[in-house]
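Weekly sync, protein design subgroup
Attendees: M.S., D.O., the rotation student, P.L. (late)

Item 1: inverse folding check
M.S. brought a backbone from last month's batch and wanted to see whether the design step gives back something sensible before we order anything. D.O. pointed out we never logged the input encoding, so this time it goes straight into the notes. Structure tokens as presented (408 positions):
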């Protein structure tokens, strides 16, 4: 039977999908393009209602073409019920591997034992799953359950194998990597992976400000392979809103962390996540977010329009910011980001940077990332994907840089 996995959501879902692929291959199924597949596996995301709406439409389309369909991943019980009416099977990620399905011969109780199907140069490695933080807007503690850290030996082994297979960018993933507890601290895990032989970069996401400790700053500084890029989601620039979000830190504390990070690692690039239009977010609260963004001058901001999700605490609050207003606030943040980044990217012009080429976008055109996670467009007649290259920056825009291969 030919199968196709469709993945929604975060990098951790991608990693789960890669394990699903290996498992299905081992069971004698054949991976294929969507047009030839007889069986579809949708790995879903529930973070926002819009993702679930898209998944429902996709699922209906697949079933209307008389294909077999399994839905798995991040699902709330409310959505599970609805999906059960559409799909042939609705299973948790664990159940995909451990439930008897007619077309699967084998079972695997600990699916982390299954090696993900790697597609170099990027290796996604989930080091933990679930979350204990219960931010009032977030479904993760309900869909993925409580926090669980994988044993460090298992992670190190997985990283070694990925590097042997040619991966050059190791992403360590968790909802809150700072609270990793699989036999060592997160910093020590970074040290261990940094020791593995080979030419590769180490990245991680995501961190919670409440668990951020200064030893992580020292680790980033000391470990050569750990890149100078930090994603530290703030969610809002206003203390009152942070409290309602159940995010136990203040903006002063957040700024103190950023100050320490910048002082110790001057060339760090910073990204954050922000939710606009959380219940009760007035103009004055939003203004504080704008102020923070201007002060910190983030390199990237992942903006989410607040989406009420069943089971969460915020679902009981009044969703009182209109969709238009959420869009307006999102646009204001995007404009600031654009303006600030244009100034920042300008400073790259004429400089030489090391880039890891991630994909080919069209003939003679490639996309890559610097170690600071800046996007670089490269034109070249050579096949560059999967290589580190030296590039001279010849142009820039708010969203990235353009470079050409430097002569050796
Ligand atoms: N509405 C909008 N954005 C959300 N996020 C999580 N839950 C919601 C929600 N209900 C965002 C947060 C988080 C990112 C992964 O998704 O900013 O950091
Ligand atoms: Fe969700 Fe908060 Fe946990 Fe992140 S830390 S997964 S936003 S509950």
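Designed sequence read out in the meeting:
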């Amino acid at each position: 039977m030919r199968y196709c996995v469709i993945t929604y959501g975060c990098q951790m879902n991608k990693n789960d999908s890669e394990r699903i692929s290996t498992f299905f291959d081992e069971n004698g199924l054949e991976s294929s393009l969507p047009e030839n597949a007889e069986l579809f596996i949708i790995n879903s995301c529930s973070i926002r209602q819009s993702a679930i709406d898209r998944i429902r439409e996709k699922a209906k389309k697949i079933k209307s073409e008389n294909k077999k369909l399994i839905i798995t991943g991040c699902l709330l019980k409310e959505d599970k019920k609805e999906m059960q009416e559409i799909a042939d099977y609705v299973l948790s990620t664990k159940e995909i591997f451990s439930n008897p399905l007619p077309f699967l011969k084998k079972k695997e109780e600990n699916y982390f034992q299954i090696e993900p199907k790697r597609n170099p140069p990027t290796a996604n490695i989930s080091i933990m799953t679930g979350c204990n933080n219960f931010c009032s807007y977030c479904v993760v503690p309900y869909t993925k359950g409580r926090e669980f850290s994988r044993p460090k030996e298992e992670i190190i082994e997985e990283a070694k194998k990925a590097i042997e297979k040619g991966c050059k960018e190791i992403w360590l993933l968790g909802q809150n990597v700072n609270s990793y507890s699989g036999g060592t601290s997160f910093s020590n895990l970074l040290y261990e992976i940094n020791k593995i032989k080979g030419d590769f970069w180490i990245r991680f996401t995501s961190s919670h400000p409440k668990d951020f400790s200064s030893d992580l700053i020292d680790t980033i500084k000391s470990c050569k392979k750990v890149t100078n890029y930090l994603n530290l989601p703030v969610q809002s620039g206003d203390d009152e809103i942070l409290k309602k979000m159940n995010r136990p830190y203040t903006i002063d504390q957040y700024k103190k962390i950023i100050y320490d990070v910048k002082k110790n690692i001057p060339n760090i690039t910073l990204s954050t996540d922000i939710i606009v239009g959380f219940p009760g977010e007035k103009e004055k609260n939003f203004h504080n977010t704008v102020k923070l963004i201007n002060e910190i001058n983030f390199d990237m901001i992942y903006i989410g329009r607040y989406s009420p999700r069943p089971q969460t605490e915020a679902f009981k609050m009044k969703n009182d910011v209109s969709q238009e207003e959420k869009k307006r606030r999102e646009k204001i943040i995007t404009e600031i980001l654009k303006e600030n980044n244009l100034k920042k990217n300008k400073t790259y012009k004429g400089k030489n940077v090391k880039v890891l080429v991630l994909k080919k976008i069209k003939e003679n055109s490639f996309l890559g990332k610097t170690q600071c996670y800046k996007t670089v467009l490269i034109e070249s007649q050579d096949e560059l994907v999967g290589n580190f290259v030296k590039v001279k920056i010849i142009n820039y825009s708010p969203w990235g840089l353009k470079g050409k291969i430097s002569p050796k």
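Discussion: The mean pLDDT is 96. DSSP finds twelve helices and 18 strands in the chain.
Action: P.L. to compare against the previous round before Friday.
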